[in-house]
């Protein structure tokens, strides 16, 4: 449920392009996500603008005519922010600001902003701040170019440059301070992780808003903040979970998103170490989301970037309660069948079939199929645990049946 709190929502517009990599439908889906991001950051979207463009205009991202259309709308409707669905170059951002005379932000900035809003612990805040400064640094150059042009260059270049050089130095100093601070925290975290001993580590991973925290709450009876907004979780929660007689550690952590800013991947290194050091991944997918296949690809790409793509993984398709295939009416002879028309049974026969036993379909909210979930997780954890504690028999009486109550901590 999207509840409007007492926050003043800032009027904004979205701007995206359509090209051979993203057709009209894809572009629309990306803008849906951008709108959700905008909403999470406290923005209300009044209108979307799209333009067919093979390559973005290097100066202003979209073409002049389209830009004029956007400008008029912004002026007439008192819009505060224009949000672009791609990372803008520092120069583009400056140029556009000059034309639109409102705040101009891109997808990366928006994500950083949400992270900043949501970071609760000093650790998360430090990581976000570092990412924000990394984002800012090259943009100070843009500011300089802009000033230089405004002042006519010659003669004025000296002071302008000095000013900006000072700013850049301050930002660079800040970056290295934050990096030092993070290094210290990283060491503490590594020690903490070390202290957790030899227990098998399982990490919930997945796109943002798929239900990782909800699932964590269901299996560990803990209270992790879950909400229908993007990036509800920024910090890592680790819980000891016991299924039957088998204890293991379960981690809930930050969700991923398409085009997750590289600055964030880098500065959240330590948070992501939880994933990197996990023995088993539970890749949670929101099967009710029309773009869930793209989500899987984005998550896999990030897992690859953090060298975690080869870990044993269970694919957990969540929100089956909310899944409904699109229906083609019997007398409709035109509409072609697409994956969106698949029933769950049909989905199971697609590429999902190739995942073999490592697939689960659940509803964390309705606690549907949790028995099977526990059984599969138990088996996967057990397999790893056995190699680690080969003689620890008392923890492992052989269970050949999974009947009866499964005990929890
Ligand atoms: N219909 C339905 N909704 C669910 C289910 N599981 C979770 N949700 C909802 O999905 C939204 C996101 O849930 P979270 O648990 O916060 O998702 P998350 O993956 O932890 O999200 P981030 O921390 O933002 O990455 C919440 O509104 C949940 O109530 C489910 O099985 N069915
Ligand atoms: Mg969460």
UniProtKB/TrEMBL annotation:
Stretches of the chain forming a coiled coil according to its record: none
Signal peptide feature range: none
One Gene Ontology MF term: GTPase activity
Chief subcellular location: cytoplasm
Residues holding GTP: 206-213, 231-235, 252-255, 318-321
Residues given in the record as Mg(2+) binding sites: 213, 233
Swiss-Prot/TrEMBL keywords: Cytoplasm, GTP-binding, Magnesium, Metal-binding, Nucleotide-binding
Residue ranges annotated for the Hflx-type G domain, each copy included: 200-385
Presence of the UniProt keyword Membrane in the record: no
Keyword Nucleus: no
Compartments where found: Cytoplasm
Domain of life: Bacteria
Named cofactor requirement(s): Mg(2+)
Gene Ontology cellular component list: cytoplasm
Stretches that traverse the bilayer: none
Quaternary structure note: Monomer. Associates with the 50S ribosomal subunit.
Family stated for the protein in its record: Belongs to the TRAFAC class OBG-HflX-like GTPase superfamily. HflX GTPase family.
Known function: GTPase that associates with the 50S ribosomal subunit and may have a role during protein synthesis or ribosome biogenesis.
Name this polypeptide is given: GTPase HflX
Gene name linked to the record: hflX
């Amino acid at each position: 449920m999207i509840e409007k709190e007492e926050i003043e929502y800032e009027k904004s517009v979205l701007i995206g392009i359509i090209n051979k990599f993203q057709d009209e439908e894809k572009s629309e889906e990306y803008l849906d996500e951008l709108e959700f991001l905008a909403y999470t950051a406290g923005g209300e979207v009044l209108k979307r603008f799209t333009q067919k463009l093979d390559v973005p205009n290097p100066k202003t991202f979209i073409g002049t005519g389209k830009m004029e259309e956007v400008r008029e709308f912004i002026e007439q409707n008192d819009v505060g922010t224009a949000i672009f669905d791609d990372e803008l170059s520092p120069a583009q951002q400056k140029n556009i600001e000059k034309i639109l005379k409102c705040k101009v932000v891109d997808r990366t900035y928006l994500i950083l902003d949400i992270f900043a809003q949501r970071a609760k612990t000093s650790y998360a805040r430090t990581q976000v701040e570092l990412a924000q400064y990394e984002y800012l640094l090259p943009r100070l150059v843009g500011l300089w170019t802009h000033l230089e042009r405004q002042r006519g260059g010659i003669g004025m270049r000296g002071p302008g440059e000095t000013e900006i050089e000072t700013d850049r130095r301050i930002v660079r100093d800040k970056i290295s301070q934050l990096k030092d601070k993070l290094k210290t925290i990283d060491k503490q975290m590594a020690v903490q992780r070390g202290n957790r001993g030899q227990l098998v580590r399982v990490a919930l991973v997945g796109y943002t808003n798929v239900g990782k925290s909800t699932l964590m709450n269901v299996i560990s009876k803990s209270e992790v903040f879950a909400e229908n907004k993007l990036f509800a979780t920024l910090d890592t929660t680790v819980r000891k979970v016991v299924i039957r007689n088998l204890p293991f550690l379960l981690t809930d952590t930050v969700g991923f998103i398409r085009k997750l800013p590289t600055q964030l991947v880098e500065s959240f290194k330590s948070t992501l170490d939880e994933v990197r050091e996990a023995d088993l991944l539970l890749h949670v997918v929101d099967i009710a989301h029309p773009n869930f296949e793209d989500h899987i690809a984005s998550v896999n790409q990030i897992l690859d970037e953090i060298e975690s793509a080869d870990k044993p993984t269970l694919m957990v398709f969540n929100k089956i309660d909310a899944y409904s295939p699109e229906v083609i009416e019997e007398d409709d002879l035109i509409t072609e069948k697409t994956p969106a028309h698949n029933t769950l049974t049909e989905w199971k026969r697609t590429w999902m079939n190739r995942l073999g036993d490592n697939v689960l379909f659940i509803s964390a909210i309705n606690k549907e199929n949790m028995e099977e979930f526990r059984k599969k997780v138990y088996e996967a954890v057990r397999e790893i645990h056995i190699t680690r504690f080969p003689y620890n028999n008392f923890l492992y009486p052989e269970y050949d049946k999974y009947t009866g109550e499964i005990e929890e901590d």
